[in-house]
Amino acid sequence: MVDGAIQMTEDAAGRTRMSVVMDTIRQRIAGRSLTPGAKLPSVRGLALTMKVSTSTVVEAYERLVAEGAILSRPGSGFYVANQAAPFALAEVGPKLDRAVDPFWISRQSLEAGDGDLKPGCGWLPPSWLPEDSVRRALRTLSRADGSTLADYGSPLGLPPLRQLIARRMAERGIEASPDQIMLTESGTQAIDLLCRFLLEPGDTVLVDDPCYFNFHALLRAHRAKIVSVPYTPAGPDIQAFATTVAEHRPRLYITNSAIHNPTGATLSPVVAHRVLKLADQFDLTIIEDDIFAEFEHTPAPRLAAFDGLDRVIYIGSFSKTLSASARCGFVAAKPQWIDGLTDLKIATSFGGGRMTAELVLNVLSDGSYRKHLETIRHRLSLAMSTVCAKLKNLGVTPWLEPQAGMLLWCQLPDGIDAADVARAALEQKIVMAPGNAFSLSQSATNFMRFNISQTLDPRIFDVLGNILKDRRH
Amino acid sequence: MVDGAIQMTEDAAGRTRMSVVMDTIRQRIAGRSLTPGAKLPSVRGLALTMKVSTSTVVEAYERLVAEGAILSRPGSGFYVANQAAPFALAEVGPKLDRAVDPFWISRQSLEAGDGDLKPGCGWLPPSWLPEDSVRRALRTLSRADGSTLADYGSPLGLPPLRQLIARRMAERGIEASPDQIMLTESGTQAIDLLCRFLLEPGDTVLVDDPCYFNFHALLRAHRAKIVSVPYTPAGPDIQAFATTVAEHRPRLYITNSAIHNPTGATLSPVVAHRVLKLADQFDLTIIEDDIFAEFEHTPAPRLAAFDGLDRVIYIGSFSKTLSASARCGFVAAKPQWIDGLTDLKIATSFGGGRMTAELVLNVLSDGSYRKHLETIRHRLSLAMSTVCAKLKNLGVTPWLEPQAGMLLWCQLPDGIDAADVARAALEQKIVMAPGNAFSLSQSATNFMRFNISQTLDPRIFDVLGNILKDRRH
C-alpha cells in the first residue's frame, strides 16, 4: 500500500476504495454507531483498519464534508454533522445492484404505467378480480348508516368480518376465536405490527432463501439482523434450519407455508412437524404469512393448524383475491398477545379502516365470491400450463410446477444474469422480478420470478426471447 | 430498613415496595436492558440499590418466577426467561393510573357502545359529517374503472388528490409541490412513518405539556425519550423551550400550531418565529400536525408557512371533517426526504389505500364540501358558547375560549381529580378525557378536555354535576 496514491482499483461491486471508505462511514452514521457530533476515526487509524492509503481516507473524508455528512474542525479532526441523515432504508445492509434492491421491484411494479407489462409483480390483473361484486358492495355501502360511513372502527376491527375470517380459517384447520383476530390495513401492516411487538433492534430473524423480497425491506426497517435457510420444494432445508436456529437463536421465523413466495412450493407435513419441533426446542416464534391461501385447490398443511396458534401467528389479506385498492388484512394470534398488539395498532394508526372492512365483508358475504375463487383457480391452472410451456421454449426452466397460485420460480439459461435481463426488459416497459431480490445470500442471480397471470401477453415472450438470444452469443 | 420484614407500606401510586421491585424488573426486561438469559442483580445488591429489604426482593423474584418472567437456578441466581415477553406498550414508561393511561381514552372512545356519550373523544358526531357527499362519492366510485377498484395505489398516492392538497395548503400559505406530498392511511400513520425515518431508539423528542395523548403512546412505541415544555395560550413557553432544547438536544418537536390539542390554543406569530429560530440554532426538526386545520375561521400562522418546509414537516388528514371510517392522511416534507419516506411506506404497508383516496378526492371535489365546512364551523361556534356557559355553571372553568375547533381544556373545581371524575362518569356510560393523559409531567390532575360537539346532551351536565357535587362535600 503506497501512501499518497488514491487507489482507483475497483472491488467486486465495482466501487473504488475511496467509495468503500465513504460507504463505510455513511453506514456507521446511518446505523448511529457514529452519532451526531461524534468524532470520526483518525485518518491514519482508519487507513490501517481498512487497509487503504491515508490519502484515500483524506479524499473520502473531504468528499463527505462536501456532502454535508461530516464537518472538518481544523487542528481537531472530523466530526459527524449535527443533523444526522434520516434513516435511509435503501442504504441499510449491503449495497446491492439497484435492479435487485427490494425496493426496485416494488417501485417499478407500483409505478408502472397502464400500458406497461408486469410479469414481475405479485398480483392479479384487475380484470381477474371480482369487479362486479366490488361495485355492488360500494352501492350497498352508500346506503349504510351514518356511523359506518363516518366513525372510527373499533380497535380489533369490524366484528362480523372477524367472525367470518374465523370460520374461513376453520376450513383450513386453524381454530381461532374472533377475539384472537385483529384487522389491519394489509398483510404487510400485520407483519410490521408483529415486528414492533416481538422484536428489539438487533434481534435476529430467520427467513427462507429465497423469500418474498419485502420481508428483507421490512426487517431492515426494524433494524433486525436477518439470517436465512435454503428453501426446498418441501419447505425449508431442515438440516440448515436446525443449524441456523442453534447458532443464531433467531427470535422470529417468517415464512409462507401453502403457496411459497417466490417458489410456489408447498410445505410438506413432515417438514412442518420438524420445523415446529425445532421452534419448540429453540423457543422460536413463527409468522405464517398466508396471503395466497385462497388460490389453493386443496388445503395444504398450515403451521398454525399443527401448532394451534401457540407459537405460530397467522396472517391473511384480501389484496390478492378481492382488491388491492381496498386495504384490509388480519392477524390471528394467541389470546394473551392481542391486547398488546391492539395497543400498538392504536398508537401507530389509531382507528382501523372501517369502511374498507365493511366493503370486504360485503364482497365476502356475496354468494358469488366462492364461485369467483373457483374461476380464478381454474384460470390460474390454465395459465400455469401455458406459461410453463412457453418459458421452456425459451430455455427458461421452472424450478418446480406449483400446485396452485400465480408464482413461478424459473432458472434462466446458464450464465445469464436475471438483473441484467430485468434492466433490459424495463427499457421496453416490462417489469420483471430478478431472483436476487428474493435471496439474502444473493445466490439466485440466475433465477427470475414470473407471475403467470401477468405473463400472458405475447410481447413478453418476444422481448424476453430477444434479450436471451442477445446474451447467449 | 429491617431485613426479614416485607414492607407493605404503599408508594404514591398505591403500590407496595414489592410491586415496585417487580415493576422495575419487568420494565428492564421489556426495555431489554435485561435480555433473555441474562442474570438478574443479586438479591442483596438490588435490595441495597432500591433501598428495600432483602426479603422484599426475594418475594418479588419468587413471584416473577411464578409468572414465568424469570427462572431460578438454585445455587446460581435468577435469570431472565428465554422467551422474553413481547413489547408491552402499556408497560413502557412510568406506571400510570389506568384512567389516565394514553390507551385508556383511545380504547374507551373507540370501544364505546352506540348509546354511550363521548365528551372525551376527539372527533365529531357522525351526523355532523358530510354523509350525503360520502354516499354520492361511493356511488361514483361504484362506476370507476377496474384498475381503480382493484389495483394497488402508486407509491406517493393518487396524483389528483395530491394536487388538490397542494392547492389547499397554498391557501394557508404553505408552498409544496404535489411531489412533496405523500398520502398515508391517517395523520397518525404519517407521524409514525416520520418517527421511523428520523428517530433511532433512545433519541429525544420534545412535545408540549399538555399535548395529544397519543403522541406519548406513539413515541413510546419508538422507544424515544420524551421531554416536554409547558404550553401557554400563545404556544410553547419559549423560555422553557430554549432551556429544554439546549439541555436535551431533542431531534424532533411534535406540535399543533393552529388548533392545539388539547387546549384549543393558537400559536402566535412571535412565538412561531422564536421557535423556528431555536430550531435553527439547535438543529431541531419539527412535525406540525395540522389535522384540525379545516375548523379554522381565519388561518393562523403555520410553522410550515414561516419555514417553507425546510425543517418543518407538515401533516394533515381528513378524519376530522370528512370521515374517520375512510382512512386518509398525508405528509408534506422537503423534496430530498420524500424518497426515503416512500421506501419506508412501501416496506411497512406496501400500496396505499387507492379506493379511499378516490373517495376523499370525490368528496373534496364535490361543490358542497366548502359549504359543509362553513356549516361545521358555525355549529362549532354555537356549541362552544353553549358548552362554555354550561360548564361554568358547574364550576368548570375553560383555560381559554378557543377561536375555533371542538376542543375545550377546562379546570375542574379546586381539589377535584379528573381521573376520579372520569372513572365515575364511565360507570354511567360517559367517556371523558382526564388531563393527565395529555401531560408528561402529570401536572394536569385538575384538568379535563371536552369535545364540545359531543358535549351537547343534557345528561352529561346532569351526571357531571352530580359527580362534582359528591366530591365537593
From TrEMBL, chains A, B:
Q: Which organism is it from?
A: Rhizobium setariae
Q: Which InterPro entries match?
A: Aminotransferase_I/II_large, HTH_trans_reg/aminotransferase, PyrdxlP-dep_Trfase, PyrdxlP-dep_Trfase_major, PyrdxlP-dep_Trfase_small, Tscrpt_reg_HTH_GntR, WH-like_DNA-bd_sf, WH_DNA-bd_sf
Q: Which residues form the HTH gntR-type domain?
A: 15-83
Stated name of the protein = PLP-dependent aminotransferase family protein
Q: Which UniProt keywords apply?
A: Aminotransferase, DNA-binding, Pyridoxal phosphate, Transcription, Transcription regulation, Transferase
Write out the similarity annotation.
In the C-terminal section; belongs to the class-I pyridoxal-phosphate-dependent aminotransferase family.
State the coiled-coil residue ranges: none
One GO molecular function term?
DNA binding
Top-level division of the source organism's lineage: Bacteria
